[in-house]
Specification:
eight-stranded mixed sheet; 12 helices; elongated
Length: about 280
């Protein structure tokens, strides 16, 4: 990518995306990051060799792509401060802020903008993210390609045609790393009760999850088939899976993900109400 990209916000997620872009061949000279904290800017500038500034509007003036990477609670103030620059430059706007819908953000920026909403997750920090993207009707095919390439710098990208489906993305991937961390925690605790040292149980659980995910990603079979392939009739795995099914793991996961999506909808309503 040789377009001029400005990140409003220089936190962990912005740094991860920028790092992925530069590692993938994007020139650091094409990237600018802004923040009010001079030390934060000095750190990211030294680490990634990008341009930095505390002047949001000046950075937006030169942007072909404007990535909004600030906390949702700060977004209205930041966007309203950028509105004149955005109306003049008309960049592709990409928001990675949770909860704020495209119409709200576009309105704060003065309206009529090509805008993409992105729901990334924390494994993006290690280049293994999963992001759901939604584009409003002003985004061109070329701009969709640009957004795809930008977020592919930190992992998998999936587009949704209905913005409300980003709530489902939040449940399936945005919040989901924590589901697996809970599983690791539970497996470690159970391993200790079975006699293993905690660090041994933790390493085995994490490596097994990594291996299972790699197999699932590379296999032509669906997860149900892969699960069945591990199970021998009357064996240890069959007994363990039967125990999990009896404990209604599927329903617990469904309940958790429904609650996650519902909270995402509530947060969107609360944040949008700040208009």
């Amino acid at each position: 990518m040789d377009t001029q990209i400005t990140f409003i916000g220089a936190g962990n997620m912005a740094g991860a995306i920028i790092g992925g872009l530069t590692q993938g061949g994007t020139s650091a000279g094409c990237i600018t990051a802004t923040a009010p904290d001079q030390k934060q800017l000095a750190d990211i500038g030294a680490r990634l060799s990008i341009h930095t500034t505390t002047d949001n509007a000046a950075a937006a003036d030169a942007a072909d792509v404007l990535v909004l990477a600030v906390k949702p609670q700060l977004m209205r103030e930041v966007c309203q401060g950028l509105a004149d620059s955005v109306q003049q430059a008309r960049p592709l706007v990409i928001s990675i802020a949770a909860g704020l819908d495209a119409t709200t953000i576009d309105g704060w920026l003065g309206g009529g903008n090509a805008l993409v909403r992105c729901m990334p997750n924390t494994p993006s920090l290690v280049g293994q993210g999963a992001s759901g993207l939604y584009a409003n009707d002003r985004v061109s095919d070329a701009q969709r390609d640009t957004a795809t390439r930008l977020m592919q710098a930190v992992g998998l990208v999936e587009w949704v045609d209905d913005e409300s489906l980003l709530d489902a993305v939040t449940a399936v991937s945005g919040s989901a790393p924590a589901y697996f961390f809970l599983m690791f925690e539970a497996m470690e605790d159970a391993g200790v009760r079975l006699g293993l040292p905690a660090d041994t149980a933790r390493r085995l659980a994490i490596q097994t999850a990594l291996g299972a995910a790699t197999m699932a990603g590379q296999s032509e079979h669906d997860p149900a088939t892969l699960k069945q392939n591990v199970m021998s009739p009357g064996g240890t795995t069959e007994r363990a899976i039967a125990t999990l099914e009896d404990a209604n793991l599927r329903q617990a996961m469904d309940d958790a993900m429904q609650a996650c999506a519902e909270r995402a909808r509530q947060m969107a309503a609360e944040l949008s109400g700040e208009r």
